[in-house]
Amino acid sequence: MKKLLTILLVSLLPSFAMAAGGSAYELDHYPGDISDTASLQRGAQTYMNFCMGCHSLEYGRYNRVARDLDIPEDIFQEHLMFTDAKIGELMTNSMDTESAKEWFGAAPPDLTLVARVRGTDWLYTYLRNFYVDASRPMGVNNRVFPNVGMPHVMAELQGLCGSIPLPESKEVVDKQSGKLIVASGCQEFYETGSQTPEEYDQTVEDLVNFLDYMGEPIQQTRKTIGFYVIAFLLVFLVFAILLNREYWKELH
Ligand code: HEC
Question: For residues 115 and 249, what is the distance between their CA atoms, to the nearest angstrom?
């Protein structure tokens, strides 16, 4: 019995560790929906434009993404592929790991599985919490990934927050001037971007949705199959109960 309890406790240890790790900073809740194809398409577009140059998705193929996201292959090739790669190829890029380490202090990792490693809440928070920090080589820092080597590549959309963003603060607009005071946790913008805070949140939501899909492309199909399997079992249960009654009728 004692042995059993010890085994149980040891097997629970990783979950305690994860719970402790998560409480170091508060994460915003990621509101996305993987069955929303339009959102996945927008996410793919953002990814190809802003991320693919540094981060590959080398466990996925272009044509698989095109098929799953209902994008015709010729349109995908024309608007979403910026190299001379073929549509059937793996989604690699030509970033040289050694030079990248020199430039950023760390090589940009492949992001195919990042949504499964970090989780969607983490990604959603990370991509919205960059802020100006002159002491860093790229001039920016990040609330959930302190001293990150990555520059804020979507600063032209979000703008650049002037100080460390506060978790969970809602947007506040100054009534007299109409000026934005607090948005997405940002107290004051050092530089404004081309999108409003709501638009930027939507952009990041779509992008994280796309990364969630990349981490498990079969996810939507898996859920649909699961639904039909459970529905079949429920229908089958009715017949099994009726048959069971029929068998036992004579014996009672
Ligand atoms: C200019 C190159 C560059 C671009 C463009 C870029 N990143 Fe990064 N990214 C990096 C580097 C370098 C790191 C590693 C940072 C470190 O470990 O300090 C990184 C790290 C990350 C991480 C953390 C990975 C982990 O688990 O440690 C995520 C997530 C990420 N990037 C997402 C994105 C997304 C999404 C985009 C597109 C909007 C993007 N990046 C665009 C350079 C880039």
Answer: 55
Whole-number Å distance, alpha carbon 232 to ligand 1 midpoint, is 44
Q: Which protein residues are within 6 Å of ligand 1, measured from CB?
A: 50-51, 53-55, 104, 106, 108-109, 111, 114, 117-118, 123, 126-127, 148-151, 153-154, 207
Domain span at 235: 218-252
Q: From the alpha carbon of 149, which atom of ligand 1 is closest?
A: 18
- In this structure, the answer to whether residues 133 and 240 fall within a common structural domain is no
78 shares a domain with 60: yes
Q: To test the ligand 1 pocket, which listed residue (52, 113, 125, 150) has its Cβ within 8 A of the most ligand atoms?
A: 150
Minimal-distance CA residue to ligand 1 atom 42: 150
Residues listed for the chain? 252
Structural domain includes residue 4? no
Cα–Cα separations (whole angstroms), residue 129 to 16, 33, 113, 115: 26, 22, 21, 17
The tens digit of pLDDT for each residue in 68-81 reads 999 999 999 999 99
Q: What tokens were used for 213? A: 């899909």
Which tokens go with 138?
């790229």
Task: Give the burial string for 149-160 (b: 16+ CB within 10 Å, else e).
Answer: bbbbbbbebbbb
* 3-state SS class at 25: coil
Residue 107: what pLDDT? 94
How many structural domains comprise the chain?
2
**Per-residue model confidence as pLDDT tens digits over 48-64:** 999 999 999 999 999 99
Q: Which of 15, 217, 13 is nearest to 115 (CA)?
A: 217
